Amino acid sequence: MNLENKVVIITGSTKGLGKSLALGFLKEKAKVVINSRSQKETEKVAKEIGAIFCTGDVTKEKDMQKLASFAVKKFKKIDIWINNAGINVEDAPIEKMDSKQAHELMEVNFFGTFNGSRSV
User: Fold this and answer.
1) The pTM of the whole model exceeds 0.70
2) Closest CA to 47 of 32, 37, 58
3) Which tens digit of pLDDT belongs to each residue from 42-51?
4) 103: Cβ–Cβ under 8 A, 6 or more apart, which residues?
């Protein structure tokens, strides 16, 4: 598959799988926009790997709309959008799970994917 000049957006891309995906797409000469909610970390990783960045929180629909608009303004298109941002909680029986953590898990893992998909 020829990925040269394809525009790729990857949420949660400052470490782990997201960063590895960004590096892989960059190697194939795609134009990559990385994203996370930390301005400092996203900017640092973008400089390190040669990507473009746009910070935003996947749990906020407006932030994901801003990310999509940013890419379209810069590149006139989006070819690939990867909803990679995600968190996990410590393994524990449900009765011992903190409800705040459970809500955050749903916000990031479900609504983050929902918001990203709707925005693109």
Assistant:
1) yes
2) 32
3) 999 999 999 9
4) none
